[in-house]
Design brief:
With 361 residues, the chain is an alpha/beta fold. It contains 13 helices and eight strands. α3 packs across α4 and α8 packs across α12. The chain is globular. The protein binds nicotinamide-adenine-dinucleotide.
């Protein structure tokens, strides 16, 4: 084996453990925050209030309007409120939507954020921000949006419904899969990615059997941390481009779309990424074809199986294939309109993904 890589570590400060939310005031002390705005999604006010009471007088407000893909208007209101309250930072509690809103504030005002993730989406580990204006999502990388501290408390994930836990967990695995064959893959991130997939593949069946089982919840969040770190450290390829197009242009649901597409994207790429395929086989405990195992696993976990089931029309396949192939980006296997069309047609119908990327009978 010969090595050839460039590795730049992101500054990560992570507190992990059941009840870790109690360490929030100490984390704010480390950063020097005195007046923070708490952010969460609608429907997550109870969790938001838990954070508010953990903060006591240091909390100057709670906003519960974080939604998927950070609409510019929502971001502008939150950015203005930070100024009117004289806040010196934010605590974002929730999934990628709440953390994304925190990042929009950090981007505009250069204020530190502390993230308390309650899904497995992984945004808390990345310097990537997103903002949606008139239906167009713009994304970028900026170190100032990377949370200064992340508190992973598995107790806060106990309320995540089983279906959402499964799709969010497979969404996390997708980051690890693409990190393993990324153009900028590095040995340490590959180890984290492999371990992240192993942890989630072990934890999700436990959660499906018992949503509140403590070790399953802890293991799933641990896997999500590793997969999020892999996402933050590498460049994503075809799978993420497909999901970005399907979510952005057709408004398909985020984690469910990742769940359906992943086995197909992996089946397409795995003949061209043998080291990644071997790592994933080890992580999933199979002797060959990790794409096949992922497909089976998502069936066993009762996850959605086809893009048709998520509301996509067959007539939109060509449009998405066009969008995904209109720009060039790194992917282990060369991409053509026809091959992406075949992949999408198989995923739309929920047909068994085969390793050459074309649908089987
Ligand atoms: P989300 O944050 O919208 O959460 C999904 C749903 O789950 C919401 O209704 C939320 O209220 C609910 N929820 C969250 N935690 C819960 C809990 N513990 N119990 C019960 N319900 C809970 O969705 P997500 O999948 O976490 O994140 C997706 C968003 O994050 C997308 O906009 C995506 O683009 C973005 N994202 C960004 C990055 C990045 O690096 N910038 C990475 C991953 C995802």
């Amino acid at each position: 084996m010969t090595y050839d890589f460039c590795y730049e570590a992101l500054p990560m400060r992570v507190r992990f453990g059941a009840g870790a939310l109690a360490s929030l005031p100490g984390e704010l002390d480390e950063i020097g925050l005195r007046r923070v705005l708490v952010l969460c999604s609608p429907g997550q006010e109870d969790t938001g209030e838990l954070v508010v009471s953990a903060l006591g007088e240091r909390c100057v407000g709670l906003r519960a309007d974080a939604v998927m893909h950070v609409p510019a208007q929502v971001a502008e209101h939150a950015q203005a409120e930070v100024v009117s309250l004289g806040a010196d930072g934010c605590v974002a509690v929730g999934g990628g939507s709440a953390i994304g809103l925190g990042k929009a504030i950090a981007l505009k005002h250069d204020l530190p954020i502390v993230a308390v993730p309650t899904t497995y989406a992984g945004s808390e580990m990345t310097p990537v921000w997103g903002l949606t204006t008139d239906g167009r999502k713009e994304t970028g990388r900026d170190p100032k949006v990377l949370p200064r501290s992340v508190i992973y408390d598995p107790d806060l994930t106990l309320s995540l419904p089983v279906g959402m836990s499964v799709t969010s967990g497979i969404n996390a695995m997708a980051h690890a899969v693409e990190a393993l064959y990324a153009p900028d893959a590095t040995p340490i991130i590959s180890l984290m990615a492999e371990e992240g997939v192993r942890a989630l593949a072990a934890a999700l069946p436990v959660i499906v059997t018992d949503n509140a089982e403590a070790s399953g919840r802890s293991q799933a969040l641990y896997g999500a941390w590793l997969c999020g770190a892999a996402l933050g450290a590498t460049t994503m390829s075809l799978h993420h481009k497909l999901c970005h197009a399907l979510g952005g242009s057709l408004n398909l649901p985020h984690s469910e779309t990742h769940t359906v597409v992943l086995p197909y994207a992996l089946a397409f790429n795995e003949p061209y990424a043998p080291d990644a395929a071997a790592a994933l086989s080890r992580a999933l405990g199979v002797s060959a074809d990790p794409a096949d195992r992922l497909w089976q696993l998502s069936r066993e976990l009762h996850a959605p199986q086809s893009l048709a089931e998520l509301g996509m029309r067959e007539s939109d396949i060509g449009r998405i294939a066009e969008e995904v192939t209109s720009r060039s980006y790194g992917n282990p296997r060369p991409i053509t309109y026809d091959s992406v069309h075949n992949l999408l047609a198989a995923a739309w119908a929920g047909q068994w993904p085969v390793a050459d990327g074309s649908p089987s009978a």
